[in-house]
Structure formats: structure tokens, C-alpha cells
Automatic annotation (TrEMBL):
Lineage, opening ranks: Bacteria, Bacillati, Actinomycetota, Actinomycetes, Geodermatophilales
Record domain ABC transmembrane type-1: where: 45-248
GO cellular component: plasma membrane
Protein known as: Molybdenum transport system permease
Ranges that cross the membrane: 7-29, 49-71, 83-104, 124-145, 174-194, 229-248
Gene3D superfamilies: MetI-like
Record flagged with keyword Coiled coil: no
Organism encoding this protein: Klenkia soli
Length: 261
């Protein structure tokens, strides 16, 4: 490999890997289990797992139809719709939290109606955590499923149509099984992104232990008073991220060489 390529590559690898090695080197391994068994850690971990799973389920229900519309329909303005759907990918999460607050807050566009008619508020509740995570994570699912739909052979769908199957039956019995690996990969990415969400959650849901304090928020809080606890919590999230990559390795490194999206 030419030196002008090798040297920057080595520097880039070091830049990405050294911080992760720092977590492993500085981790209080002898105190790991006591740190993990603290009540607040268990609460944050359970809330993170439950909220990320619920956000992924909501993303599947809403995101798969969106991906189908983007990949298969002839709806005018699909490029605009795609841009709007993928905005949360590049939008700062804190801005997303502010936007959710302006829509669903007590004085928001929809939140005002919920409060006045049903005396119900969404911000600073566990529901707000799920909504914030869904907002930032669903685009990952949409992109993955849209890519799978575009790569799928449409002739199978055409054959089903010639045999008398309607669009819903074709989608359920033919299209969905064809793109199932893409849906699974998108769901895993969506779940991992929801698990690591911080900015939109703390802005829209707050940081209340047992109610809205997820693992990333617990890391931020522990870093101010218990650095070793913050390292332990960070290790948990690191291992979850590595597990996610291992689950997706076959899709990334498969024979086709096709990218995830």
C-alpha cells in the first residue's frame, strides 16, 4: 500500500480505536459487578431496553409502509418525502427534542389538545422517551427497508399479481418475505440507535430516574459524581454496540457486497 494511503489509514484507525481501548483499560474490572448491581443502574438498563424495543416496534409499524411507498409507489414528490423522512438522520437530536416539545408539549400544536380535552401530557414521561427514540431511530429502518425493496426482484410480485393476488396479499405473502433480511437489519440498527439516544430524550423527556433516565442519561449523570460508574455503564453500551455489529456482519460482508442501505 502506498505510504500516502497507509499513514492516514493507520492514523484514522488509531483515532477510532484508541478511545474504545481507553474504556477497556480504565474500566474498574474488580468493581464491575457491584457497579452493575446498583438499583439506579438496573432501572436505567431496564428502561433503556424496554423503551428501545417499543420504539423499534413502532418504527416497524410505521417505517415499513413508508419504505414501501418510497420504493414501490409512483406517488408524486417521493424525493421530497424521502428528504423529510430522513431529516432526523442529520438533525441535531436536541433540535429534534425541541421540535417534539413544540408539537406534543402542553402548549404544543397537538399537546394542547391532549391536555385540554383529556388532561394528559406527554413530555417528561416514559411515553416521551419512546417517542423521542422513535423519532431519531426510525429513519435507519426506513433506509434499510427501502434499499432491500429496491434490490428485490419485482418479477415475483408481478407473478403474484397475474395469479390474482391483490396488492395487500402480494405484500404480505411475497414482498415481505423477500425483504425480511433487510427489515431485520433495519430493526437491529433502529434498536441500537434508540438505545443510545441522548439529546432528544433529555430535551423532550427529561432525566428522571426510573421514569425517563435511560442508560446514556445515566452515563452523563454518573460522569459528574461517579466516573467509575460512568465507565461501567459505557462498557455496557459498548458491548451492545459490538453485538449489533456482529448481528449485521453477514449482511455487510455477504457475497453480494451490497451496502446495508
Amino acid at each position: 500500500m502506498p505510504a500516502p494511503l497507509l499513514v492516514p489509514a493507520l492514523v484514522g484507525v488509531a483515532f477510532l480505536v484508541l478511545p474504545l481501548l481507553g474504556l477497556l483499560i480504565r474500566a474498574p474490572w474488580s468493581d464491575l459487578w457491584p457497579q452493575l448491581t446498583q438499583p439506579q443502574v438496573g432501572q436505567a438498563l431496564r428502561l433503556s431496553l424496554v423503551s428501545a424495543t417499543l420504539a423499534t416496534l413502532v418504527s416497524l409499524v410505521l417505517g415499513v409502509p413508508i419504505a414501501w411507498v418510497l420504493a414501490r409507489s409512483t406517488l408524486p414528490g417521493r424525493s421530497v418525502l424521502r428528504a423529510l423522512v430522513t431529516v432526523p438522520l442529520v438533525l441535531p437530536p436536541v433540535v429534534g427534542g425541541v421540535a417534539l416539545f413544540l408539537v406534543l408539549g402542553r402548549q404544543g400544536i397537538l399537546g394542547r389538545y391532549l391536555y385540554e380535552e383529556f388532561d394528559y401530557t406527554i413530555p417528561f414521561t416514559t411515553t416521551a422517551v419512546v417517542i423521542a427514540e422513535t423519532f431519531v431511530a426510525m429513519p435507519f429502518l426506513v433506509i434499510s427497508v427501502e434499499g432491500a425493496l429496491r434490490a428485490a426482484d419485482a418479477r415475483f410480485e408481478d407473478a403474484a399479481a397475474t395469479l390474482g393476488a391483490n396488492r395487500w396479499t402480494t405484500f404480505r405473502r411475497v414482498t415481505l418475505p423477500l425483504v425480511a433480511p433487510g427489515v431485520a437489519a433495519g430493526a437491529v440498527l433502529c434498536w441500537a440507535r434508540a438505545l443510545g439516544e441522548f439529546g432528544a430524550t433529555i430535551t423532550f423527556a427529561g432525566n428522571f430516574p426510573g421514569t425517563t433516565q435511560t442508560m446514556p442519561l445515566a452515563v452523563y449523570l454518573a460522569l459528574q459524581s461517579n466516573p467509575e460508574g460512568a465507565i461501567v455503564l459505557s462498557l455496557v453500551l459498548l458491548f451492545v454496540s459490538l453485538a449489533t455489529l456482529l448481528l449485521l456482519r453477514d449482511r455487510w460482508l455477504g457475497r453480494s457486497g451490497a451496502p446495508l442501505a
